[in-house]
Amino acid sequence: xxxxxxxxxxxxxxxxxxxxxxxxxxxxxxxxxxxxxxxxxxxxxxxxxxxxxxxxxxxxxxxxxxxxxxxxxxxxxxxxxxxxxxxxxxxxxxxxxxxxxxxxxxxxxxxxxxxxxxxxxxxxxxxxxxxxxxxxxxxxxxxxxxxxxxxxxxxxxxxxxxxxxxxxxxxxxxxxxxxxxxxxxxxxxxxxxxxxxxxxxxxxxxxxxxxxxxxxxxxxxxxxxxxxxxxxxxxxxxxxxxxxxxxxxxxxxxxxxxxxxxxxxxxxxxxxxxxxxxxxxxxxxxxxxxxxxxxxxxxxxxxxxxxxxxxxxxxxxxxxxxxxxxxxxxxxxxxxxxxxxxxxxxxxxxxx
Length: 352
Known about the structure:
The chain is an all-alpha fold and 352 residues long.
């Protein structure tokens, strides 16, 4: 019972911390004078990807046995899988709920039906052609990197560890592109909510913005780690093996901050930021933990890890095709979560 209580407490703590974090990171982006989309792809993604990146770093650098180091490899593969399926699926589900609320509001009061970014998440395509091109561009960055990442797990050669540095370089290029990119298409005139640390200040102090960002990141980090530990303890109680818990449940737990951020931003009508946070976190997960794994482990995949890689590529391929055809709707985005169900069903014969 204690584990279940702590699980709920951690989930609530992560959600509330994420609500304060997104509030702070938007102000941080304004202070650093970066584009609105870069707030999601770089600033928010860096913060929310921190817990699982640290899991990989600790596992691959301090693991005393190959099995301990492989925990980091599993985390490096599980993160992108959960983001490409569950995180996008939850975002689509939230957009469908928001649509239902708008319809109910329109029936009661037509003037109340319109909200921020209503067009992004409308009844038809999820955004304009320009929005979909931007989303597709991020996935186009991710997919080739991830394919190489999976391919390297199937081969062995002397200089393979050195290629870990190449993954760091790819993220550096992506980072530079996002920070220096043309953000003229970003939302204009979007009013920021008052900073939680200084709710009465029209323009909060920079120290307050930084303090709120760091404080919420600390809570997210420790609550996420505690959440994963409770999940590891609850899994066997529910009759789940350690392998199933590690491959099926732990990735969702480690990506919980991104999922919570998506829920909060969609609820606030800032869908672009929600999707940007997911795609930015995916780029981090495809490069930084992978680079660490290549440098400090043999980076050799078993059948379960290969299966997770194939499902991730299938999910991104599905999303990329719908984006390029300008047919990505909230409903089709929600379908992405179905790939995680396929992954779980495929694990049954693999682990058996």
